[in-house]
Every structure is written in structure tokens, then in C-alpha cells.
Amino acid sequence: MTYCAVGNRCAVDFTDLQLTIPPDKCLEILRQKGFREIKVNLVELARKCVSVSKYRRGARLDESPQVFDCSSFIKWLYGQKGIWLPRRGIQQREFGVPVNREKIKAEDLVFVSGYIDYYSTNPKDGVGHIGIATGDGTIIHAANSKLGVIESSFEDFVSKGFRGIRRIVPDGHLVHTLITPDERGVEWSDDIRWIILQEPRK
Fold first, then answer.
1. SS3 breakdown of the chain: % helix, strand, coil, rounded to 5?
2. How many Å from the N-terminal Cα to the C-terminal Cα in the chain?
3. Across residues 151-156, what is the average pLDDT?
4. Structural domain spans, the chain
5. Catalytic site residue 10?
6. Helix axes 70-80, 42-49, angle to 10 degrees
7. 9-196 has which fold?
8. Known catalytic residue: 176?
9. Of residues 10, 26, 49, 70, which has the active-site annotation?
């Protein structure tokens, strides 16, 4: 998987870089070049927004994390992990891999119908709302202007009209989130490969 960076954060799966250097050595090389690895738990981060962050339809990205709508909430969360997602829920459903309801796990995205649905060709498959699964049978989402960000049961959430589940980081992939130094321009996780390979031979 290749991930598009968000600001100075970029997610990378070292096994996807097709290097002969083991991941721990890759991280050591990157640390010497000014990179820093951080741990990002999206469920913990989302729960910090519950009953705190406000909702406004069409919220600007620069208002995060104080103000969200449902899709800007998801975009902001994954951005903290260094993974770029598009702005709208209907676009976000095109990312990752589809998942059956029975196999849902933490950090999966759940799509349902909403007040206004967006669709490409089939209005019965329109997406109007999105949330993130916790792995505990609940979904965290920016609900509306009255409730803000809340945590709802999965069954209550999908009762609005289930429109699918997507897993952004596929099973078997270990993603590291890197903070890039100011002097380094990283746009894609593949850029990390070439930065590592700049290491002179010893």
C-alpha cells in the first residue's frame, strides 16, 4: 500500500517498500535523518472528541478538532495517522477494502444513508453519513448540531440504512506513522524508500 502524506505526517508499511533492509534498521536510518515515529490509536483519539467536539455541516478542515461534520471527522482522524483521505464520505468509501459486517474491527469505516445522500449511479446506494468502528460494538461519529461527536451502538448506527464498511489499512499490513523533518519533502510513503536508500554504503 502506498499512502499519501498529510502535512508532516506519513504512514508507511516497510514491507511494501521492497527493501532488503529490515524494518527496525529502516527506522534507525530514518531517525538519524531526523524522522520521528509516533503511535496513533484512532479509537482513543476519536473518543477524546466525544461530547467535546461540535458539529457543523460543511465544517472547514482548519476547524478540526473543535468542529467537524461526519466526513471531516474521519479525514482528520486518519490524517493524524499520516493517511490522506478525500473530503466527502462517498469518496472515502472508494478507499481501502470492503469488509463484511461480521468481520468488522476497530478503525473500520462504516457508511450509512443520511439527511442528504451522495451517489454515482444508484440512488439506493447513496452515502450520507460515516463513522469509525471502535471494535467494541460501537461507532463514533459526528452526528448533528445538537449532539456533536457521539458514540452509538453499531445496530443503531446502521439502522439509518447500511451502505458498507471499508478497511483503510488491509489485514497483514503494519503501518508506522512518521513525523518528517522540516527540511524533508515527503508526499507519498514511497518517498521513504528513496530516502532510506540514500544511506551511503559502509
1. 30, 25, 45
2. 30
3. 98
4. 9-196
5. no
6. 140
7. endopeptidase fold (from Nostoc punctiforme) (3.90.1720)
8. no
9. 70
Average pLDDT of the residues in 64-86? 98
- 173 has catalytic annotation: no
Instruction: Tell the residue number behind the cell numbers 499519501, with chain if given.
Output: 4
User: CA 196, 40, 145 angle in degrees (round to 5)?
Assistant: 135
Q: How many CA atoms lie within 13 A of 172 on its CB side?
A: 4
Q: In terms of pTM, does the model score above 0.90?
A: yes
State how far the Cα of 3 lies from the Cα of 138, in Å rounded to an integer.
27
pLDDT for 33 beyond 90? yes
User: Catalytic residue among 10, 49, 129, 176, which?
Assistant: 129
